[in-house]
Amino acid sequence: MNPTSPSSGSASPAPMPARTGAAVWRGSNGDSAKGAGAREASSTAGNKQVAGKGTAAALPHVVQRMDDSDPRRANRQTLEDIQNGATGIAIVFQDAPNAFGFGLPATAEALTVALADVPLARTHVRLDLHPHSRASVDWLVRILSERKIDPSRLDVSFGIDPAATFAGTGRLRMSIEAMLESMPQSLAQFFALGVPGILLEADGRVFHNAGATAEQELGIMLASAKTYLRMFEKARQPVLYAAAHIGFALSVDQAHARSAAKFAALRSLWSRLLASYSVPDMPAVVHAETSYRMLTAGDPESNILRNAVACFSALRAGANTISVIPHTQLQGLPDARARRIARNTPLIFQQEGNTFLAGDASDSDIAALAVPMADAAWSEYERIEAEGGVLRSVHDGKIQQRIEEARETAAKFLRKGKPPIIGTTLYADGPGPDLASLPVRAEVVAPEGTIFCEQLPTIRLDELLEAAG
Hints:
With 469 residues, the protein is an alpha/beta fold. The protein has a single domain (59-468), classed as TIM Barrel. 44% of the residues lie in helices and 11% in strands. The protein has 16 helices and 14 strands. Strands 3-4-5-6-8-9-10-11 form an eight-stranded parallel β-barrel, surrounded by eight helices. Strands 1-2 form a two-stranded antiparallel ribbon. A two-stranded antiparallel ribbon has the order 7-14. The longest helix is centred in the last third of the chain and has 23 residues, at 364-386. The chain is globular and about 60 Å long.
């Protein structure tokens, strides 16, 4: 991450406009109208009264990963995805913690090619966390400018999370102090654009995929959000404005009730943190991605069902956006069929199953899990704060140590068959089928960093079991 770009020569950041709601989708010069009718129809049909809430809730965006190393092929995939029901894209660059060995080349040229003809003014756009997150924001803004797209009409998440990037890559490009000092001024120009989206994100996926418990994941995310609020408070910016541009990203897995409870726990934690600043409560904006660590290599087709359970949990709990990692991600870069299955999973739940209940956590089993989960997460958050904040805790390896302990505990239970992994520890059926994947160009990214930490691994449950055996 490189948050050092100047902001129009001003000495302090411009005030940030509060996010007031979803973007209004209008045509923009240079923006293709392809797929617009389907999106508008889907949004209209999907709006519904949330039971007990008294407000209308729009369907969450179905977000497809853009992680192909070939920008032209990535472009074709994205256009096909949007034509066939996807309403958002997650741009995953090479060397990103959640690229899983793949990813779009991290260059302005690659991004320009990959986004050619993509209707950006009608598509939710995520820049997944990446060591060059700040530079990638510049690349996207340049594309918008060249295509004469009004940034205020976008629905975008810039995915900037220094703590998750630090832990997931093992390095930062500048000192913690310098980064926190410079980031508010660096981002001021984007606040001034009035983009109605997420500028900073507390991302728990890196920690989840390294073995963190749900409570640890939530506590770390809350500590990251606290870092942002404290950073802008120090820069003499109203916390109310900063809070409106902070979002969250978490993993959902096959444990349905606990996955749904994570959303309820996160919302209560966010409300508690805002209350400590005397800021009126505002909804937590949450991106959900199906868990990578739950996927299995021995029986990859069973991953389709794991993804379905995880996706159902996120939709039921009211995720704002949902991304399904294709079931063949472990075998190689997913082909068109695997991407179609990933795309159709949330679409079926949305449009056939009518399962979206925004913010609904009224079921007793979910509520019973959410309260102690939130309490334990708050304790983890307080522990991190006592360690000097999330970045300092990551730098000193404290968070990594606790996650390693959680992995060891999980391995002990896995050896006892708890939980069972169908097709791996229970009802195994020999080697899995050969699944199609796309050829990918292997590129080595030279590591850059000024300070370093212990890099968190990405380790699946079946790998953890194998290592434990």
